Amino acid sequence: MARRILVIEDDQDIAHLIALHLRDLSYAVELVDTGTRGLHAARHGRYDLIILDLMLPGLDGLEICQRLRGAAIQTPILMLTAKSSELDRVLGLELGADDYLTKPFSIKELLARVKAILRRVQVAAKSAGGGPGGSIEVNRLAIDPVRRDVRVEGRPVELTAREFDLLLHFARHPGRVYTRAQLLDQVWGYGHEGYEHTVNSHINRLRKKIEQDPARARYILTVWGVGYKFADAAPEQVSA
């Protein structure tokens, strides 16, 4: 069955160009040109990916993203923005977007991002269906890969899909140091020079959610001049 992609974009030229190239790759594409209609489609349709413009008539992309995540709809979101402000991009990620592209972008890069996101979702689904590794527990942090559930001292923690994948990747390789470029390649599914700040943003948000004191992290540690690692103490693997 073809992967279904919802494109919420009010610029008709950009929307149809995106749809043309996605359909060439055999994806099923639906186009919506307003925020209100886009939110309705995203809530009631079954999509594998949402490509969401930031600036839309009616509801903007940030509001749509926030409402979808607030309704526990975890469909991956690739956000498009014409704004060059770092604040806009970071805010989109904080509200639950999985990735972003700043306009103007190349179709080649857009397709690479789409493939990477869909590949990551497929790998996660296979892992949840009985892949390697059961639940992980370390220092009162519990991660259940099958249910995609995270708890700290018994308290449930709400993570975006990307935040969960990043945490799970770290927890499955305790003590191993990763550069930002390696994390982009292994968690995001692509490596692009200049996007390392995306890793920083995700790690900062993840620490705020799981660390008692983000300034004195005990799970995800900074290795100065190199990158990041999970706490050296090997986690306990619990059979699922």
Q: Could you explain how this protein is built, in words?
A:
This protein has 240 residues and is of the alpha/beta class. The chain folds into 2 domains: 4-127, Rossmann fold, CATH 3.40.50; 132-238, Arc Repressor Mutant, subunit A, CATH 1.10.10. The chain has helices at 12-24, 35-44, 61-70, 86-94, 107-128, 161-171, 180-188, 196-210, and strands at residues 4-8, 28-32, 49-53, 77-81, 99-102, 135-138, 141-144, 149-152, 155-156, 220-223, 227-230, 236-238. Strands 2-1-3-4-5 form a 5-stranded parallel beta sheet, with helices on both faces. The longest helix has 22 residues, at 107-128. It is globular, with a radius of gyration of 18 Å. The two termini are 29 Å apart. Mean pLDDT is 85; it is low at 234-240.
